[in-house]
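User: Last request for today: this protein with glutamine, please.
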Amino acid sequence: MASKKSAKYIFVTGGVTSSLGKGIIAASLAKLLQTRGFSVTIQKFDPYINIDPGTLNPYEHGECYVTDDGAETDLDLGHYERFLNVPTSQDNNVTTGRIYNNVITKERRGDYLGKTVQVIPHITDELKYNFFKLGETGKYDIVITEIGGCVGDIESLPFIEAVRQAKMELGPHDFVSIHLTLIPYLAAAKELKTKPTQHSVKQLQEAGIQTDILVCRTEKHLPIDLRKKLALFCNVQYSDVIEAMDAETIYDVPILMRKEKLAERVLTKLKLPKSEPDLEDWKDFLGRLKNPTEEVTIGLVGKYVELPDAYKSIAEAFMHAGAKNECAVEVKWISSEKITNDNAATILHDLDGVLVAPGFGERGIEGKIEAIRYVRENKIPFFGVCLGMQCAVTEFARNVLGYKKAASTEMDENTPHPVIDIMEEQKNITKMGGTMRLGAYPCTIKKGTKAFVAYGKQNISERHRHRYEYNNKYLKEMESAGLKASGINPDTKLVEIVELEGHPWFVGTQYHPELKSTVQNPHPLFVQFIKASLNYKKSKSE
Ligand code: GLN
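Assistant: Here's the final one, the structure of the complex with glutamine:
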């Protein structure tokens, strides 16, 4: 096994406030390194005590991002994959909960041979073991570790201490520390203020870490004298003060960081060669994104619409698919709870396409079903994702097959027509964390279907996060009435894709296609959905 020395490590911490976009800075830096030929991975260390974000409500933590290996992870991993086009895994997201769980399991096994188990060294050793784990696979030249939360938070103290120890172990040319802070603009004083950053850097110094590079989020350009002041007070070189201006989209950030020479500064410190990055494909994507020739309006029907982070990957997949079609995608967020049989037409009639979102529980379910009835009857392009697909099956059973009380047993345990039912292997599960059907499973697509047109192949693999499934007892009846199963799991026969005959584009997937859409590989179903919405829009105006 390659030693941890074979990889170089970059640690990204944050200060002043949360939500400064550490994940985007980390992903942008990774992109600038990857496009120079380095093999890079990014991992996120979150100081909260949940073992993973899988049990967190979207209001707490936005979307839960699922990896191929079935890990329920932080939504920043979605950004890492979208930027780098390389899959992440459970090893890319570690929480305090997981660290303590590992240490306590070892303690119960007797691994510590009678020692008192303590934050230092046992928790910090476990943290460092996980910091270095991906680097030790020998697959990466550079490992970027994003530390969640802010410096100074009580819960992140052991993380910062472990970073300090990692620095000592790695030595100067294998370790770089980047600190991301905010330079607020005080409108009344008409001034950018450096004091919060000075304090944050000081706090990091007190914990034994002198940051190498300071990345400053700002809404106004940093003048030279202010950069000089930051360098002086924060004990970094002038050229290591990097401006991170608010950007129009997250995809502009690698270009902004290129201008600020963030990757060059990192490569200098790591004593790695500084070639030119090849950003042609990235710029091509940005060009398409920013210069659309057409526009569609898509309704996203969900229950967390006041919280766009809950559907992060879907929103990003729309951007990728829009750029591919050179079409701006305006997303109208529609609360499913507001939709009824009476008002569906008023709310939905002028949309060019409707996506019904994933979700759990009963809230807003009838609105989702009404929205689907409307788009099915009016031949508006429809895309149902996970719960959205399950609602499409339910709607079809109720309004086409005439089973008025059809439902998923998630919503109605006693329905006479359980068209969506709990999966056999889920029946005896009582624990909540990590127990759903999670991660990548194969699916075989039938030729001659819309799914086949999109993927252009029969064998695909997509990611899942669900407990309920299509009830195959209804398959024959559904298919003869026009709702076809166009994708099936070859091993379990679970229906993965349904699509409606005689409708311009009506597709539902049990899996989450949005999790695999990247800048380099926009998801084919999203691309086709946008295309169908564009065609529908054109047909309306003819
Ligand atoms: N609640 C549904 C299930 O568990 C759908 C899940 C989802 O949309 N991710 O099967």
